Amino acid sequence: MTAHAHAHAQHERLLKLYAAMLACSQTIIRCDQKKSLFDDICHQIVALGGMKAAWIGLCGAGESQVWPQAHAGDGLDYLQTLRLSMGRDAATLACDPVQLAMREDRVVWTQDLANDPDRVALHKHAQAHGWRAAAALPLRLMGKPAGVLCLYADQVNGFDAVIRDLLAQLASNISHALGVFENDAQRRQVAFALQESEVRYSALFANSCMPMLILDPVNGHIVDANILALDFYGWDKASFTAMTIMDVNTLAPEQVRLDMAQAAAARRSFFEFRHRLANGELRDVEVFSRPVTFDGKAYLMSAIHDVSERRLLQAQVRSTQALTQSFMDHLPGVAFVKDSELRLTQVNRQLGELLGVPAQTLIGKTAHDIFPPELADELAAMDREVLAQGGSKSYDQAFNGRHREATLFAIQDDAGKPHLGGLVLDVTDRYLVNERTHAMLRLSQMAGMQTEKQLLSEGLHAAQAITQSKLGFLHFVSPDQATLELVSWTAGDLAGDGTEGDACFPTSQAGLWADCLRQQQPVIFNDQVNAQAPLPGQVPLQRLVSVPVMDGGRPSMLMGVGNKAADYDQRDVETLLLLGNALWRIVSRQRAERALQQRVQELSDLNRDLAATQLQLLQSEKMASIGQLAAGVAHEINNPIGFVKSNLGTLADYVDKLLGVTRSYAKLETCLDAMDDVAREQALHEVRRRKADADFDFMLSDLPTLMAESRDGVERVSKIVMDLKNFSRVGETEFQWSDLLPGLESTINMVWSEIKYKADVKREYADLPPVFCVASQINQVMMNLLVNAAHAIGQRGHITVRSGVDGAQVWLEVQDSGEGMSAATQARIFEPFFTTKPVGKGTGLGLSIAMGIVKQHHGMLSVQSAPGQGSTFRVTLPIDGGRGVLPPGSRGPGADPRPASGWPGP
Fold first, then answer.
1. Which 8-state DSSP code applies to residue 838?
2. Among 20, 235, 409, 689, which is disulfide-ready with 240 (CB 3.0 to 4.6 Å)?
3. pLDDT surpasses 90 at 791
4. What is the dihedral of CA 493, 499, 505, 508, to 10 degrees?
5. Phi first, then psi: what are they for 235, rounded to 5°?
6. For residues 45 and 20, what is the distance between their CA atoms, to the nearest angstrom?
7. What's the gap between Cα 269 and its chain centre?
8. How far is CA 539 from the centre of its chain?
9. Is 564 buried (19+), middle (13-18) or exposed (0-12) by CB count in 10 A?
């Protein structure tokens, strides 16, 4: 219920109760019998006061039961047999409002009778008769509870503060009447009390929370007005009560009299007027009127509610609604709002234009009232899904040959009731673009997996589907433009299955569908077309579009579709051109690829032969390097082996002589043991002779020298073997972290036999970090550079070997004092088979191989040289080998690339 409706109902109830109180007051004044008084009061409370039921019960003197005396309304038949005990049982007392009111002498208000846990006994009866609230008001006699007035209202919280005051006053008046009936001498006091009651009713009227008027329905005279009415209208009471209601109402006097007559007859109680205030301002008011009787004369009691501000707000709401409707009408699509029963409550003009009807005629209709059954079922299912799940969801829709995207979203009004909003956009153009794109991507993906004919058939079917056509055909055009070859056609409407039955015929015999070739531009026929053979199956054409696919300024292919339900347009032409050109590009590329593949196969055979020849040359260079290296190693090993062999001969002679001396000493020892002087003298002489023959003292001094020389020779051989191993790095063929300087030293030692007779080697090393590389290949590069440097020196010179770090790179450098090179020679030194050496002295592959190795390491090999100034070769390598790997001991991305032990930076 809205606030306005609630206020309206509240005013109605209050006016009814005012009228009932006045009628009850008149009854109490005039009535002289208790039974008729109680009957009349119950009747007035129900008939005029708006209560569902009312009853009055009394408790006899000295009795502990309440006896019903009178009742009115529905559901009180049970009172005829009701006897309410006034016992003190706590459980009974808590659930019975009558006993509670009598025992505690207080009014008991039950504002929600159906849900009050203390009124369980009344729940079923209250539900059956529409009782929502109840009141039990004690009636007093001689200051003590003597009876009870029970009332039942049809609204929860039906007893607000004003109504409670009025009902409490009524109970007090009835109590006074009871006293009068008990003691006739007190009647005058009762009359006086009733006069006071009228004064109090007047006070309630005067102090009501809204402007109130008492009107004479005959002439419209303003009989009385409360304070709020005088404040609202701006006249003093004397002036205002001298006026008629026609003086403030802007309606014609005849209309005002008619409205008052209807109110007096109780046919209408609510009116909307525009009243004029004393300052001339006009205000919109709602008037609630009820007939009342004073001293036998009928009047109208009217409550005035100023609704000017509300009307202004309503106008603003209407303006906002109109603005919202205008906003919806200008949206780039169909917009609507539906209620929970999926009936349209608001639509924009685009929906009306789409359906060809005024938009407002769609209000209140469902999808089944507007669309075909299948589409309506689909739309209703989507609507129910979004309403059930909440949130928003998008759907694709197809209607009347157009594609649309619908976005549905669940919303709620101020009362929390669910509604469904929707926005539908025409996405036909976007749909066509997507379908074309997907079709061309699909054709590209299928290009290498299907035959040419299968691919053309697939493309034609895609064109037919996108243009919503029923047939399609595709022809190749001969280079002389004179002949057409039917390559593919769609199955169903045309004869065949689109894969067999090629047909060739002159272009001159083709029908209108070949006009695109003759005019070299797309053609569209949206009227019935005479196909003019030869289309397979002789299918009648109602509509047709065909396009030429151009290649080099001449038609190479014809592609067409026909019998679309709607007219063909430029979008269909664009679709055929896009797919036709894509198909021709793929076919042309496939044909070129097949020709290229054949040529590639021929080149592959030539390359295979060339690779075999190159492999033989590389093997020759490798064997030459191995032979040169082996000769140098053999020469280096021969020297220590020679003097070790010589020393071993001398050592053998020394050992033989020492053994002779040793045997002589053994013989002397035997003679000494025998105490034979002659034998001892002979043995001693033999020892001295052998020592003299052996040059014993020289032999003792020469033995350590011979041993040291031999050990040195063996160590030299061991070092040569170790250098050879370090140079070759046997078993290392993959990239790994390596220290280049030990390998460089080993390489120098390996080629020392080539260098030592030509140059002195000077080392200018800087500490290097570990480098990610194949160390044996880097050693091979340095060997070639060192050997070339030695060969470049004429008589005697020097070679300088350097190393260094430059940022994330390291470099190795070999500088010689040789003859140098001209610019022309430098430009060719890295070419395979180029050499400046005499014939038979080199293959010309050394520097070429070195350059290849350096490039594999993502490095650079450069040279600086000039005639007569020697040459400098520099090898530059990335520390990480160009592979982005981390060195051992690093801490992850962004860490210092140096290993844990550390190495100096550049």
1. P
2. 235
3. no
4. 50
5. -100, 155
6. 6
7. 59
8. 50
9. buried
Contact in structure between 822 and 786 (CB atoms under 8 Å): no
**Cβ partners under 8 Å of residue 108, min gap 6:** 97, 100, 101, 135, 136
Instruction: Return the minimum-mean-pLDDT range out of 133-137, 838-842, 880-884.
Output: 838-842
Whole-angstrom Cα distance, residue 342 to residue 362?
A: 12
Token reading at 812: 């190795």
Closest CA to 240 of 227, 252, 253, 250: 227
Q: Are 602 and 719 in contact (CB under 8 A)?
A: no
The DSSP result for 872-897, as a single string, is EEEEEEETTTTTTPPPTT--STTS-S
Average pLDDT, the chain: 80
Q: Which of 310, 420, 422 is nearest to 8 (CA)?
A: 310
Q: Do the Cβ atoms of 152 and 114 come closer than 8 Å?
A: no
Question: Both tokens of residue 779?
Answer: 């050693």
**Rounded-to-integer distance, Cα 744 and Cα 739, Å:** 9
Q: How far is CA 546 from CA 274, 568, 577, 649, 858, in A?
A: 74, 11, 9, 107, 56
Query: Strand runs (DSSP E) across 258-391, as ranges?
Result: 270-276, 282-294, 297-306, 334-338, 344-347
The contacts of residue 563 (CB under 8 Å, 6+ apart) are 469, 470, 471, 493, 539, 541, 542, 543, 544
pLDDT at residue 899 in the model: 42
Give the 3-state secondary structure of residue 240: helix
d(CA 501, CA 494): 12
Spatial separation of the C-alpha atoms in residues 733 and 726, rounded to whole Å: 13
Each residue's pLDDT tens digit, 97-114: 888 888 888 999 999 988
Cα pseudo-dihedral 456, 460, 465, 469, rounded to 10: -170
The tokens for 573 are 């032409």
> Residue 684 is inside which H or E element, if any?
helix 677-693
Q: How do 418-426 and 334-338 pair as beta strands?
A: antiparallel
Pairing of strands 759-764, 797-806: parallel
Contact call for residues 409 and 336 (beta carbons, < 8 A)? no
Q: For the segment 427-440, what is each residue's pLDDT rounded down to a tens digit? A: 888 888 888 888 88
Q: How far apart are CA 775 and CA 732, in angstroms?
A: 8
Distance CA 628, CA 626 (A): 5
Distance CA 335, CA 333 (A): 6
Rounded Cα–Cα distance for residues 560 and 470 (Å): 11
DSSP assignment, residue 507? G
Cβ atoms of 426 and 439 closer than 8 Å: no
Tokens of 57: 């019960």
Distance CA 290, CA 217 (A): 11
Q: Which residue has the higher pLDDT, 41 or 684?
A: 41
The model's pLDDT over 600-628, given as tens digits with 9 standing for 90+, comes to 888 887 877 776 665 555 555 555 555 55
DSSP annotation string for 413-457? -TT--EEEEEEEEE-HHHHHHHHHHHHHHHHHHHTTTS-HHHHHH
User: Residue with structure tokens 């005849």?
Assistant: 254
b or e along 450-459 (b: 16 or more beta carbons within 10 Å of the residue's beta carbon)? Answer: eebeebbbbb
Contact of 464 with 555, CB cutoff 8 Å: no
**Six-digit token pair at 37?**
């008084």
| C-alpha–C-alpha distance, residues 891 and 888, integer Å | 9
For 25-56, write each residue's pLDDT tens digit. Answer: 888 877 778 888 899 999 989 988 889 999 99
Give the separation between CA 678 and CA 686, rounded to whole angstroms: 12
pLDDT number for residue 489: 82
Alpha-carbon distance of 681 to 696, in angstroms, equals 20
Query: Per-residue pLDDT for 637 more than 90?
Result: no
Amino acid at 671: C
Predicted model pTM: 0.39
Residues 6+ apart with CB under 8 A from 1: 9
Q: Which residues share a beta bridge with 294?
A: 297
